[in-house]
Automatic annotation (TrEMBL):
Belongs to the ABC transporter superfamily. Residues 7-257 form the ABC transporter domain. The keyword ATP-binding applies. One of its GO terms (molecular function) is ATP binding. This is ATP-binding cassette domain-containing protein. Keywords: ATP-binding, Nucleotide-binding, Transport. Transmembrane segments: none annotated. GO terms for cellular component: membrane.
Length: 399
């Protein structure tokens, strides 16, 4: 690790407005005041319906350091990354970034959908300060790493979410950035690609300052030297990974023990349950789970990501339920599906499931982590080599 500070954040805050009409009105007023050189309340007190999404956050990061950013949905992690990447302006405070910044924040962000993958590589690389010659030298490496050479001359709008993540990550890291910002969006990639990405982050960590946002505590603990937990925009705690992750998990267990729904994240989601919470299944036998989502408003298009981890926290199996598998529209109130899997192609042992509810833009609506446990029983002779995809037999809407 060097002594060179690459990221310096001092008292940074960002506010948003919950009401769209008011938000537009405030925005126009602030713009008018700025044009006429008048002070505006953009950096002052909150106006009706406004709230601090990020509130007085300060930290520094040196080359060679990796900061893991954790917190429940809506804690302000992405907003902080977007400010660091210059996509939005803080209302208060100061951000200093030194060197080239590689970032993978929102799904599809930074891509022009009508341009091909190859054209987007050139556009992005030039925005990151690379010359055409430098990009020419790197382009094969970028395409190779993304593993999508057969689609590279197709428009990005035809790419799946996973393909966009592959290309975005390959570009962001191929430029050998001084600063690398990685949001949860990496989770969209499949297990094998994610593993490859973590390996590359390990390599880059020596040379860059890395900020890594994730809900996957195993990955956070593996990659980060320090972890910072945000809670309602405020830095709730910061320190070594084990301590901060432990605190967060204890908090979640406490809420659970006191009857609150730990999985509730986005305001629109009232309940997100997977049942049964524990089940035993014989190797290679069919098994079924129920997914129950209660919403306050309709949500047009969701995906459900299921990821299974073994006792050591390694991802061993996963699958995505999207519009190809079921009618993925949520109605107001109760939505209940039964999902039948053909078999669980895993070795005998104990596993936990992480089930994540995601909207069509890859934004996480709710996470059910380590709430569902499965015990695989059988002869012990296995089975599929992990990681593997869970074979879905069918999904039925129960109501
Ligand atoms: N453009 C916006 N306008 C209004 N509110 C916003 C906007 N962007 C984010 N928010 C709100 O700011 C808060 C922080 O959001 P942010 O996306 O930073 O959280 P997060 O910790 O990254 O959550 P997640 O884990 O779900 O990605 C949330 O309440 C969110 O609804």
């Amino acid at each position: 690790m060097s002594d060179e500070t690459l990221i310096k954040v001092e008292g940074v805050s960002k506010k948003f407005c919950r009401d769209l009409k008011k938000s537009l009105w405030y925005g126009m007023k602030d713009l008018g005041n700025e044009l006429f050189g008048r002070r505006h309340s953009g950096n002052g007190a909150l106006r009706p319906d406004e709230f601090w999404a990020v509130d007085d956050v300060s930290f520094e990061l040196k080359r060679g350091e990796c900061l893991g950013l954790i917190g429940r949905n809506g804690a302000g992690k992405t907003t902080l990354l977007r400010m660091l990447n210059g996509l939005i302006k803080p209302d208060k405070g100061r951000i200093e970034m030194r060197g080239r910044v590689g970032a993978l924040i929102a799904l599809g962000a930074g891509f022009n959908p009508i341009l091909t993958g190859r054209e987007n590589i050139y556009v992005n690389a030039s925005a990151l300060g690379m010359t055409k010659r430098e990009t020419d030298e790197k382009i094969e490496e970028i395409i190779d790493f993304s593993e999508i050479p057969q689609f590279i001359d197709a428009p990005v709008q035809s790419y799946s979410s996973g393909m966009q993540v592959r290309l975005g990550f390959s570009i962001a890291t191929a430029i050998k950035p001084d600063i690398l910002l990685l949001d949860e969006v990496l989770a969209v990639g499949d297990v094998a690609f994610r593993t490859k990405c973590y390996r590359r982050v390990d390599e880059l960590r020596e040379l860059s300052a890395v900020i890594f946002v994730s809900h996957d505590m195993g990955s956070i603990a593996r990659v980060s030297g320090t972890v910072m937990r945000l809670d309602s925009g405020v830095v709730a705690s910061k320190g070594i990974p084990d301590k901060i992750i432990g605190e967060m998990e204890t908090g979640l267990r406490h809420q659970h023990a006191h009857g609150r729904n730990v999985n509730q994240c986005d305001d629109r989601i009232k309940k997100f349950n997977i049942s049964p919470p524990f089940f035993e299944v014989a190797q290679r036998n069919e098994f079924r789970i129920q997914v129950n989502i209660e919403t306050r408003t309709p949500i047009d298009g969701i995906q459900i990501w299921i990821s299974i981890q073994d006792f050591a926290g390694n991802h061993v199996a996963e699958c995505v339920l999207d519009q190809r598998s079921f009618n993925n529209v949520l109605i107001t109130g109760e939505n209940l599906w039964e999902v039948v899997f053909d078999m669980l192609p895993l070795r005998v042992g104990e596993y936990s499931w992480q089930v994540t509810l995601v909207d069509l833009c890859g934004r996480i609506l709710a996470v059910s982590r380590n709430e569902v446990h499965v015990s695989v029983v059988g002869t012990g002779i296995s089975a599929h080599v992990a990681p593997c995809t869970l074979p879905i037999k069918n999904i039925t809407a129960l109501f």
